[in-house]
Amino acid sequence: MRLLILGGTGPSGILLIRQVLTTVPSPFVVVYARNPSKLPTDLSSNSSVQIIEGQLDDAEKLSQAMEAVDAVLSALGPAQNHPADKPLTRGYTTIIQVMHEHKVNRLIVLGTASISDPNDRFSIPFYLMVSTVKTIAHTAYEDIVAFGDLIRAQDDLDWTIVRVPVLRDGEKTDVQAGYIGQVG
């Protein structure tokens, strides 16, 4: 399986690459990165990993990275001091366009609880968390909500948004999957 990984040089992306290489049968990973030097040497020198340097708005480079991939996995996330011009949403617009051109229709993206779902129920902890993010990181919040809306509007893609409320470095912990406010 040939997978394109976006956001692969951040902590979550590096873990994602490692997980793919150890669990997917016969994997080949294309890492599309702004700064490939941030990828650990054991990954950058792995024969099952190809690195393509580029920006999210570079359709030509993204097209090169998208060549013959089976799916796109994205660990992209907002930066500190996130700009107001919605770079993630603009990036996903280009990514989706290039996916259509290459007839790649599986997209799995990392999102947050800020991306609401009609099946969510009210939850005080999540309400407070999302309200805090909306207040102190407003531009990141707006971009995350916008790219969630963009992806959800793609009826011709098989997409999954993995909404993770908090990511921490450390040992693996149990995962609880489900909608906000529902015991799962």
Automatic annotation (TrEMBL):
State any single GO MF term: oxidoreductase activity, acting on the CH-NH group of donors, NAD or NADP as acceptor
Tell me which residues make up the NAD(P)-binding domain: 7-179
Check the record and name the Pfam families matching this protein: NAD_binding_10 (PF13460)
The record's listing under InterPro entries reads: NAD(P)-bd_dom, NAD(P)-bd_dom_sf, Polyketide_Oxido-like
What PANTHER family does the record point to? FLAVIN REDUCTASE (NADPH)
Assigned protein family: Belongs to the avfA family.
- In Swiss-Prot or TrEMBL terms, this protein is called NAD(P)-binding domain-containing protein
Phylogenetic lineage? Eukaryota, Fungi, Dikarya, Basidiomycota, Agaricomycotina
